[in-house]
Amino acid sequence: MRLSLLLLSLALLGSAAGVQAAGDPAAGKAKAGTCLACHGPDGNSTNPQWPKLAGQHAGYTKKQLVELKATVMRSNAMMAPMIAPLSEQDMDDLAAFYAIQPRTGGFASAERVDLGERVYRGGNLETGVAACIGCHGPRGLGDPLAGFPSLAGQHAEYVVIQLKAFRSGERMNDVSGMMRDVARWMSDDEMEAVAEYIAGLY
Questions:
Q1: Are residues 126 and 92 in the same domain?
Q2: I need a surface site. Which of 42, 54, 68, 110 has the fewest CB within 10 A?
Q3: pLDDT tier at 16 (50, 70, 90 boundaries)?
Q4: Does residue 67 surpass a pLDDT of 70?
């Protein structure tokens, strides 16, 4: 058991290390012109279907850009033409710029927050849903070394879209299939409640 956990930890660290961004935030700001229409001038999108990039770990943002460009494990028709011309350095710079921007807070729906907190912190033992807190932390800040993204304050609608994409297999770029394993057992109600709870974490 200990050996399995050690090997999993090494695999996670290796996956994250392979896409660590080492960019220049100032250069990233200068290159963010095509991004701001959807993600805002500081990475805080106003459309709840589009993610807030502000405050996201640079390595995670870089990984998403690389994989969206490759369109193998994750694809997005709207993002494809925006990412196509980006070089490796462009991605590093953009990721570095967004990483240092403060993320705006979100709002949790009062009627869903109790269920959301229960699932986020304790999962669902009856159906096999793992607790989100194990990877994303009590404050939703994630773990940059392990490649786990910061979720705190993220749009609830965007989080639900991604959870459903993991559940259906449309999105497959999660480390070792971890998110697909979690999402496959989640009900729509649990997804929406967790997303609301995450939106209020800040």
A1: no
A2: 110
A3: very low
A4: yes
Distance in angstroms between the alpha carbons of the first and the last residue of the chain: 35
Q: How far apart are CA 134 and CA 147, in angstroms?
A: 13
- The residues near 137 (Cβ < 8 Å, ≥ 6 apart) are 143
According to DSSP, the residues that pair with 129 across neighbouring strands are 124
Residue 8 within a domain: no
C-alpha 85/C-alpha 5 separation (Å) is 39
**Cα 114 to Cα 139: distance, rounded to the nearest angstrom:** 16
State both tokens at 24.
């220049």
167-188 average pLDDT score: 97
Alpha-carbon distance of 202 to 105, in angstroms, equals: 6
How far is the CA of 77 from the CAs of 68, 84, 123, 152, 199, in angstroms?
A: 9, 11, 33, 26, 26
Residue 6 counted as domain residue = no
pLDDT digits (tens, 9 = 90+) for 95-129: 999 999 999 998 888 889 999 999 999 999 999 99
Considering the domain boundaries, does residue 105 fall inside one?
no
Condensed to tens digits (0 to 9), the pLDDT of residues 125-170 reads 999 999 999 999 999 999 999 999 999 999 999 999 999 999 999 9
* Block residue for tokens 């990483």: 99
Angle at 24 between CA 19 and CA 27, to 5 degrees: 120
Residue type, 68: L
